[in-house]
Design goal:
The structure holds 2 protein chains of 2 kinds. By secondary structure, chain A is of the alpha/beta class. Helices cover 20% and strands 26% of the residues of chain A. A 5-stranded mixed beta barrel of chain A has the order 1-2-3-4-6. The radius of gyration of chain A is 15 Å and the shape is globular. The model of chain A has no long low-confidence stretch (mean pLDDT 96). Helix content of chain B is 37%, strand content 24%. Chain B has helices at residues 4-20, 24-31, 38-51, 78-92, 137-140, 154-168, 186-197, 208-222, and strands at residues 61-69, 117-123, 127-135, 144-148, 176-184, 237-247, 252-259, 265-271. In chain B, strand 1 (61-69), helix 4 and strand 2 form a beta-alpha-beta unit. The mean pLDDT of chain B is 97. Classes of the chains: A alpha/beta, B alpha/beta.
């Protein structure tokens, strides 16, 4: 989809792929980058969703799911953009440093509704664990979502909804 | 005598209810919110309840506050049964295991959401009261402790609380419930702040001066216009509860604890 036409504060329904990653997976990827090891996923064009879903209920594609606080991942944002990540999704305001990185790389940040995990679970059409399975809910996972509500919080120029 | 089985069943029922069913206060507040994501938040409350799904994927670390009447005897270990309750409820429901065994080095997921955090208090009376919080990580990260100057004014205390929520409140799923502990020692103040979160959001302190302080803080915090989801619309806090305690002549500990908009908590009483 074309993120360039959106203004900060605008919400829309996204359908497509997202890669689920949170604290522990970011830390492990950064250790691999440091050791110059092969990264198990090509992050080019990928949207990273800061989340860690609950267990699946029988008959469902994915368990309850929702965004976690994005700010904790700010220290890894430069690295993730360098790996090719296209956009990030989470909850809450980020540091000024993160907004500057969004502007520098021209990559937006979206917020998803927090505390609405049961409703969001029904918008997941595909779910798979990719790697770091030992991290439990913090494993790297791939989802395909349909009509997933998002709001543009930091645009590709680094303008920040939370700072206006 | 109360059996361990009926004790366990009552607690397990409440843990599941707190995770899946929004309280009347929360439902009404969400119902009155009109803004970004308001439809999905309303939908979530219905889906969770009807489909037995958790309201939030962060089904928390469980904190228990046990108030035990001084003459009450049980033929079971309360702590052991509370652990068993957490183990059972988190194994048999589509919840998330959100605890790690070691906080710094391995951080390996416990795979059972254990252990809970349990505090015991001896009280008058012939009953056991168990209060609990389903404590999500996002709101827990807003916990705050400051050793204030003992000659601080009421205004300075209010300013400290307002300044903390102004800078961090948007990150922990507002509207928030704020617990404030004042006095005691540093650890006691933090515990008081947590105990304040176990109060019903629409209640207030029995002492008029503290009830007024709670109201002043609530009003100031709501003027921040952080709003639902931190997006600027709707209330910022449900309420503030303050719990004071005697303290040392040289100290005035101030602790803040925060609960997210879902306020997942419970209270179970057992009469003897």
């Amino acid at each position: 989809m074309n993120f360039r036409n959106l203004k900060i504060g605008e919400s829309f329904l996204y359908s497509g792929e997202m890669i689920i990653m949170r604290d522990a997976a970011h830390k492990r990827i950064s250790e691999m980058v440091e050791k110059k090891e092969r990264i198990p996923l090509d992050f080019k064009q990928k949207i990273v969703f800061y989340a860690g879903p609950a267990k699946k209920k029988a008959g469902m594609v994915c368990g309850a799911i929702g965004p976690t606080t994005s700010e904790r991942m700010d220290k890894y944002l430069d690295m993730m953009f360098s790996l090719g990540v296209e956009a990030t999704v989470g909850k809450g305001a980020r540091t000024e440093f993160a907004a500057q990185l969004c502007g520098k790389y021209g990559k937006p940040y979206f917020v998803a509704p927090s505390g609405s995990a049961a409703a969001l679970a029904y918008r997941i059409k595909e779910f798979e664990i990719l790697f770091f399975e030992d991290l439990g809910a913090e494993a790297v996972q791939r989802i395909l979502v349909c009509d997933f509500p998002l709001m543009l919080a930091i645009d590709a120029e680094g303008n920040d909804f939370f700072k206006i | 005598m109360l059996s361990g089985k009926s004790f366990r069943e009552a607690i397990e029922y409440e843990l599941k209810r707190a995770n899946n069913v929004a309280s009347d206060t929360v439902s009404k507040c969400v119902e009155s919110y009109h803004g970004i994501f308001s439809e999905v938040l309303k939908e979530n409350i219905n889906i969770s309840k009807n489909m037995e799904m958790p309201l939030c994927q962060d089904t928390g670390i469980v904190e228990f506050f046990v108030f035990r009447g001084r003459n009450v005897r049980t033929d079971f270990s309360i702590a052991e049964i509370l652990e068993e309750c957490v183990r059972n409820v988190y194994a048999s429901n589509p919840y998330r295991y959100s605890t790690v065994e070691d906080p710094l080095f391995s951080r390996i997921n416990s795979g059972n959401n254990l252990p809970p955090v349990i505090h015991f208090f001896e009280v008058d009376g012939e009953k056991i009261e168990i209060r609990f919080l389903i404590k999500g990580g996002g709101s827990e990260n807003l916990s705050f402790l400051k050793m204030m100057n003992p000659s601080s004014s009421e205004e300075e205390i209010i300013d400290e609380v307002v300044s903390h929520i102004r800078s961090k409140g948007a990150k922990s799923c507002p509207p928030l419930h704020i617990g404030v502990g004042l006095g005691g020692t540093s650890d006691k103040a933090m515990l008081l702040a947590k105990l304040a979160l176990t109060e019903k959001p629409d209640s207030h302190n029995n002492d008029d001066a503290y009830a007024l302080l709670e109201k002043k803080m609530t009003d100031r915090l709501n003027k921040l216009n952080i709003g639902f989801q931190g997006l600027g619309k709707g209330i910022t806090v449900y309420s503030v509860h303050v719990k004071p305690y005697p303290t040392h002549i040289a100290t005035l500990p101030l602790a803040i604890a925060v609960d997210c908009y879902l306020c997942r908590k419970g209270c179970v009483e057992f009469e003897f």
